[in-house]
Design goal:
With about 140 residues, this protein is of the alpha+beta class. The chain contains 5 helices and 4 strands. A 4-stranded mixed β-sheet has the order 1-2-4-3.
Length: about 140
């Protein structure tokens, strides 16, 4: 069965919320697109972050864009807490320059940084009066 891709409005909303609550001002939410895939043979992946490389930006005369893909078979069954953590993880791959590159796991995108940012996300929700930790 081939992989299919569909826009993921629920993920897009969560991405926007995470960007806002964590003050990830270097990320332009209008240039991050979210898709849900079905049919992936990936054994471990839950989500992926893609970038439009510099060479494509130059060739097409357009700015950088990013895509967050969630793999339906693994993402959809997660708890709301884990969905937020997955989105935080993927957004941490986007560098401060927002120029088309991706940050690596080693030293940048770690379990620790995801947990720290998740705690900040929950604290922001609590400060705003929204006590529900779900997205």
């Amino acid at each position: 069965m081939p992989i299919t891709y569909h826009p993921a409005e629920d993920v897009q909303s969560l991405v926007r919320e995470v960007i806002k609550r964590l003050s990830l001002t270097h990320i332009d939410p209008n240039r991050v697109f979210c898709f849900r895939s079905r049919g992936s043979r990936s054994r471990r992946g839950i989500a992926r972050c893609y970038s439009l490389s510099k060479i494509w930006q130059k060739a097409l005369s357009i700015p950088s864009y990013y895509i967050v893909e969630v793999i339906s078979e693994r993402y959809d069954g997660l708890s709301d807490e884990n969905k937020v953590k997955v989105i935080i993880h993927e957004l941490l791959h986007i560098p401060k320059a927002f120029g088309g590159g991706l940050r690596p796991h080693i030293g940048c995108v770690t379990r620790r940084t995801v947990e720290e940012n998740y705690c900040r996300f929950i604290a922001s929700k609590n400060q705003s009066g929204d006590r529900n930790p779900s997205p």
